[in-house]
Task: inverse folding
């Protein structure tokens, strides 16, 4: 299986070099494969952050209503098969290796001939598997952008755009309005669209796109969907953690209301476990407490760093294992870093990773430019070694008699790939 996928460039490892805009290749293979996505209903989800959480919550609630639900998301963390999942009354299944192999044998040569990107291959594969398995509905998460994303060949019954922030600016544009315009490319004629969060720069873009398409527009921030009056209780109980889930939950409840589906409290509370959804403010250890999150841009990490500051403002020691990819606005993130922490700068494997030493130097430069004192820090290029060092440091504080209410908190993040390698290291 791995040898097959090595033939196709992945954004995960190659960055924008692997990005192939345009839908012609997907449409060609899709027609040859018999347009499998037309054999089930679809819901399309785009946005800068929160796409994964929103997609998983919607899928969990649809499954709780008795439907057989396909879910396509990206990137994966530990296993490529995480990208395509089916949830129904019998439980959750990842796409089996046999299905992957069968698709590769049937379409591999044609995929190389076109040639497809890694993301186009996995998208086509997921669409076919969902059709073969007879799903009732599939929740499809955009990979990047919207207008030219490989998933945008579907004809959904609902489009969802979570929010807009600065990310992938080299591809999507360097203003919020430009990025919003690319995301708004998933809005289809007559198809309702839910917008999770709007900004003054983005709302006119969505209003214009919806009006041009004759698409009913729902602004989640302005609506009060069923169960929203209980959002505090739900957020406290949900196994999807993080302050940012407040906006995601409202978006989901609005989307379900538009679909005419009664939200399931149990599904909302247990989405992470029901869908085997990882890396969103996930507690990996309890002693010492270790939280990981795949947030990787300033728009998303602002929430995480604010929460870390809240959790440690009483003097609780904060230990961070942090790394980034090189093609992000790293300085914008580093300027948001908590002001009191022990930071282990690291980097994941692969050519996209920003070297740990450079990340540390840029952090120091950001602190100096702002007239701020830099936190204590170390450079440990290996994620596994950085994690080991962070755990050893946290345990040394505990052994030194740290009060129980001030036990160290370890945070691992900055990149999906840093989180993935940390999770793999913990699993041995």
Result:
């Amino acid at each position: 299986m791995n040898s097959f996928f090595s033939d196709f460039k992945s954004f995960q490892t190659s960055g924008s070099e692997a990005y192939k805009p345009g839908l012609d290749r997907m449409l060609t293979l899709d027609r040859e494969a018999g347009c499998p996505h037309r054999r089930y209903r679809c819901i399309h989800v785009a946005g800068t952050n929160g796409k994964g959480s929103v997609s998983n919550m919607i899928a969990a609630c649809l499954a709780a209503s008795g439907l057989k639900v396909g879910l396509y998301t990206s990137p994966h963390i530990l296993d490529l098969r995480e990208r395509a999942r089916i949830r129904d009354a019998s439980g959750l299944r990842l796409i089996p290796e046999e299905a992957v192999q069968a698709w590769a044998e049937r379409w591999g040569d044609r995929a190389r001939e076109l040639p497809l990107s890694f993301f186009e291959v996995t998208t086509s594969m997921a669409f076919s598997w969902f059709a073969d398995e007879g799903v009732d509905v599939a929740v499809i998460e955009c990979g990047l952008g919207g207008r030219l994303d490989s998933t945008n060949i579907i004809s959904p019954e609902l489009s969802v755009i979570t929010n807009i922030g600065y990310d992938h600016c080299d591809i999507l544009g360097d203003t919020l309005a430009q990025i919003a315009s690319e995301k708004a490319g998933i809005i289809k004629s007559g198809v309702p669209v839910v917008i999770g969060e709007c900004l003054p720069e983005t709302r006119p873009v969505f209003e214009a796109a919806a009006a041009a398409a004759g698409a009913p527009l729902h602004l989640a921030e302005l609506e009060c969907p069923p169960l929203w009056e209980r959002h505090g209780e739900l957020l406290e109980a949900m196994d999807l953690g993080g302050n940012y889930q407040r906006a995601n939950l409202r978006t989901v409840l609005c989307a379900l209301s538009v679909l005419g589906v009664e939200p399931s409290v149990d599904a909302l509370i247990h989405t992470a476990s029901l869908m085997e959804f990882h890396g969103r403010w996930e507690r990996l250890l309890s002693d010492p407490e270790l939280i990981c999150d795949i947030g990787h841009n300033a728009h998303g990490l602002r929430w995480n760093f604010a929460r870390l500051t809240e959790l440690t403002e009483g003097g609780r020691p904060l230990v961070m294992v942090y790394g980034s990819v090189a093609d992000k606005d790293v300085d914008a993130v580093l300027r948001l870093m908590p002001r009191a922490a022990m930071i282990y700068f690291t980097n994941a494997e692969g050519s996209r990773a920003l070297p740990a030493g450079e990340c540390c130097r840029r952090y120091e430069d950001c602190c100096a430019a702002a007239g701020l004192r830099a936190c204590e820090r170390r450079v440990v290029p290996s994620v596994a070694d950085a994690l080991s060092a962070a755990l050893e440091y946290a345990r040394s504080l505990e052994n030194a008699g740290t009060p129980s209410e001030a036990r160290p908190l370890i945070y691992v993040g900055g990149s999906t790939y840093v989180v993935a390698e940390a999770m793999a290291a913990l699993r041995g």
Q: What stands out?
A: The mean pLDDT is 94. The chain is about 45% helix and 15% strand.
